[in-house]
Amino acid sequence: MERIKGKGDAMCKRAYEDKTLTCRDCGRSFLFTAGEQEYYAGKGFKSQPRRCKECRRGHKYAGAKDKKLYPAVCAACGKEARVPFLPGEDQLVYCGDCYAQIRAERRGRG
Fold first, then answer.
1. In-domain check, residue 45
2. What is the extent of the structural domain holding 41?
3. 18 within 8 A of 31, measured Cβ to Cβ
4. Which end of the chain is more exposed for a tag (fewer CB within 10 A), N or C?
């Protein structure tokens, strides 16, 4: 629900309803759910999404295939890792397996 100004200074709540939108990239219809609308409003987004989830994801990671990867040595296991940034000499770098394990351990503590 979104709080909107009514007549005078009274605040009233407006319920969101699911909307069917058309993706500007692929032309398919997609559902913009009430929950998504509430999330967008909470983040301060003023406009509706113009792309479906698949096209948004594709657009977001469009250049990821072309990124240069740099070799590094994993600080935890010593295996070679490939990272999308040039690591500094004093910078810890982890391979995908070790990074996933460290991340899971951090989530468990939170």
1. yes
2. 8-60
3. yes
4. C
